[in-house]
Amino acid sequence: MTGAPVAPTAQDVERELLQRWPESRLEPSLDRIRAVTDALGGPQHAVPVIHVTGTNGKTTTARAIDDLLRGSGLRVGRYTSPHLETMRERIVIDGAAVDEDRFVAVHERLRPVLTDVEARHGTLSFFEMLTAMAFQAFAEAAVDAVVLEVGMGGTWDATNVADGLVSVVTPISLDHTEYLGPDEAAIAREKAGIIKPGSVAVIADQPPAALAVLLDRATEVGARVLDARRADRILARVPLDDGQLLDLRAAGREFRGLVLPLLGLHQAGNVATAVTAAEVFLASTGRSLETATVRDALARVRSPGRLETVRRTPRVWVDASHNPAGTAATVAAVRELPSVDRLVVVLAVLDGKDVDGMLRALQDGVAEVIVTENTSPRRMPAAVLADRAAEVLGAERVTVEPGLSQAIRAALRRAGGARTAVLVTGSVVTAGEARALLRSEPSP
How many CA atoms lie within 13 A of 388 on its CB side? Predict the structure, then answer.
């Protein structure tokens, strides 16, 4: 006599999902994800969507939109990627990551349709499965809105089976060029695919070539364009050690004296874009974005792993920047802080990234770089990264530690001065692993 089958745990589901082909690979087809969502009854169409793409700033922008909509009385689902520590972070309902029981239940809900779909269309990827799970979770939760972040690109991204009422494009720069194209115009063509007929396109600061492509797409599909450039939306900004003070302009009014606990001009731009997107979405529901809501939501907004303070003595940030534009924005944010004179960087990157561009972005603002590795199978070996860093930064500024934990301890020892800070960066994997390590690492 056999016992009843043992129900899978959240850890079992995560392990099973990781056996699928990875999200770092883009395949130009929506057939598999569309077949799954069709079999589920089209959960991606159950709730109005704000769709967010771009190269940098997507996750912060999505989180801020979520906070603004919830502050306006809506129940919100949010889907972002990649995660820092657990896959469940990607699927958020009412401001909280989906719990383990719901994560398992939604995965099991998909299992009966997979046999037929995969027999006809091939195996779903890791990202396609999580996207389908998110759509199903949001439909079952009967939320009022979904903030949906693209994984990579736009046109062929699994999230693009949804039709955004509002399409947000954060700043575009070079990243994933092997899949998205060799220049900013090509990348913009891929990302412009989320701008759907009759939608509102909220467009942040863009390189001229990318902007032209986005505007052409909006004209082609009859989308209305809202300008969310920093020069148009940010009226004033005062950097602080723990954030910044902002005055922002919205469609017909101004929000003054806002406190934002995020660092850098790039984050001010992200929340300005979020306010623009939230405002137009709420207007479509007959609501308005109130000053008190903006003030409260921005004061509470958090962006884990994005120049996030994880220790105050010495000051330590973790940051998920993994391309030259993101690294440059992070360094610029640190350099404008009044309390930091010296910066020690712990750097671990993934192979295939524009490492030389990232190192050049570190050139002027960094005293020392400790090169190391994270645990990703795609990690760049520390010895290889050290050689590249020595070429760009000079060997006198570069040291090597074999593992991330050792590198963090070395950085903490070197940060003895009151005006010295530590930045751990290079990839989302690095940021996530560093967060976990620093929680357990004793102060030097």
Answer: 21
